[in-house]
Each structure stands twice: as C-alpha cells, then as structure tokens.
Amino acid sequence: MVCPSCGVENPEHNEFCDSCGARLEEVATKEVAGEAIEEVTEEVPVESAPQMGVLVLPDGSEIRVENDLVFGRADIIDSISPSEASWVSREQFTIAMDDGRFHIEDKGSTNGTRLDGEDIKGLGPRELSEADIITLADSIDLEFKLAE
C-alpha cells in the first residue's frame, strides 16, 4: 500500500506508514482517459493525538493529567500553607479520561469540591472543560486546562 503522504510502499497489512507514520488509506486504481489514477475507496479517520490535562495549582505550578489521577492533600501541600492544606482530604477527587473526555468526581471529601461554583460532592462524574475552576474546601482554586 502506498502512503498518501510520502509515497513510500508499505506492506498491505500496515495501518500506518513505516516511513512517516501517517495513517494509510485503502485505494483502488481507476483508468481515466488511458491514465491510471488512484481513487480512495475507504477513508480511515485520522486519530488526533491523545489529549492531556493540566491542573494549575494556586502557586502556578502544574500537575499533568495523562491517565487517571487521584488528587489529595499530598499533591498540593507545597503550593499552599499547611493550615490551608489541612482542609483538603487525603483523597479529595479523581480525574479520569473516558472516550477522550476528562471527568472529575469528588471522593467523599470532608470539605467538598466545587466545579465552576457547583458543589459536585455525591453527584458522580462531571465532565471537565478548558479553563474550568475546581475549588477545594471552598477556598483553594485550581484551574483545569487541556494540553496536546
């Protein structure tokens, strides 16, 4: 199979080009006015790079969210005062990725978790979006951002 991006011939079973990594498409040749041309018969959707989330802490430091994350006091202790940290539970919330989307869920924290001002304790998973503000114990704000 010929790569539509770089023109390198690849084994028929390959989904991606051995040379440039582009996704390969199945093509059929068709003769038009005596000239062979390639016609796409099946388009394979191009998958975007997996997204990554970032939590921006009060001091501006960041925690990358690539897989499931359980966030708690130990994750924020260096970014806030010890007295503020005491209000954060050991396991405050989780962030999980499902179907390419991030979700947050309060883990039964003592002092609650808010998403853009809404108390999410006991509500189950809530979808996260770019620039959402996660508030811990009604006083500590984190920002959620998407990164490639």
Describe the structure.
- This protein has two domains: 1-47, no CATH class; 52-147, Tumour Suppressor Smad4 (Sandwich), CATH 2.60.200.20.
- The radius of gyration is 24 Å and the shape is elongated.
- It is mostly beta strands.
- It has two helices and twelve strands; from the N terminus they run βββββααβββββββ.
- A six-stranded antiparallel sheet has the order 4-3-12-11-8-9, with no helix packed on it. The chain has a four-stranded antiparallel sheet with strand order 5-6-7-10.
Shape: elongated
Beginning-to-end CA distance, first to last residue: 30 Å
Assigned CATH architecture of the largest domain: Sandwich
* Overall tally of domains: 2
Strand numbers in spatial order across the main sheet: 4-3-12-11-8-9
Largest sheet: 6 strands, antiparallel
Low-confidence stretches at least 5 residues in length (pLDDT < 50)? 43-47
> What is the fold named in CATH at topology level of the largest domain?
Tumour Suppressor Smad4
User: What is the H/E string?
Assistant: EEEEEHHEEEEEEE
| Rg (C-alpha, Å) | 24 Å
Q: In CATH, what is the class of the largest domain? A: Mainly Beta
Portion in strands: 35-45%
Please count the beta strands (DSSP E, at least 2 residues each): 12
The helix content is under 10%
What would the keywords be for this entry?
148 residues, mainly beta, Tumour Suppressor Smad4, 2 domains, four-stranded antiparallel beta sheet, 2 helices
How does the SSE layout of this entry go?
Elements lengths: L25 E7 L2 E8 L9 E5 L5 E4 L3 E3 L1 H4 L5 H4 L7 E6 L2 E6 L6 E3 L2 E2 L6 E2 L4 E5 L3 E8 L1
Antiparallel strand pairs: 1-2, 3-4, 3-12, 5-6, 6-7, 7-10, 8-9, 8-11, 11-12
